[in-house]
């Protein structure tokens, strides 16, 4: 199995897209805020740019989380770097554009390399969940680029002390199998959406995959799904766990790691260390 909770018996707390309730998701500030809050790990989504760089962006398009528009995979890295990736959130929070403009660094695009730099600087075994998006396109280019970047950071050989503990996640078994072929030592997480066929909720996983990432809606509907997975030897992560009630449900169900937009609140509820 993979990571089984932390040493004090509480589930691990993972910052979803960084501390994304407090800071603009997938910005460096979202991750440094998560580190300061004392998280056990972080989650990020990665997409390919038109010139094949991996950037940390959730949506297919730039529209929601930047001041630009367009499909990420049709835009070059240089163009994406010109955009402001923070002001949308600042404005959501009721502050002014001028305030957002004062610190352009805040709005800088986060590349996977820059995130891994920040993570390795922490010199801790932070659980690092990297979700590959658009799994059915480019015949595995996303996975090849990801493995290349991970290799640069020495992160394809399995968990090492003082370095991030990387797990690659996908809703697509095909994408996970491609990843397995390229970097067999990197543990994989099969993500299961609440709308997935019921049978797969506690079903067996392909050889070499023993971590599931369950939609919180599955746990609400059927908390026993967690135990069913654990009986099969699976480690269970749950996303996105944002309320005290959901945190409680996950603790009672025996979840190994909670992926939350509000990791600071979750840590406070769980009583720290
Ligand atoms: O951690 C898994 C979760 O992030 C999957 O859903 O849409 O937030 O990427 P999404
Ligand atoms: Ca994700």
UniProtKB/TrEMBL annotation:
This is Glycerophosphoryl diester phosphodiesterase. One of its GO terms (biological process) is lipid metabolic process. Signal peptide: none annotated. GO terms for molecular function: phosphoric diester hydrolase activity. The chain holds residues 60 to 332 of 338 of the full protein. Residues 11-270 form the GP-PDE domain. It comes from Knoellia remsis. It comes from the Bacteria.
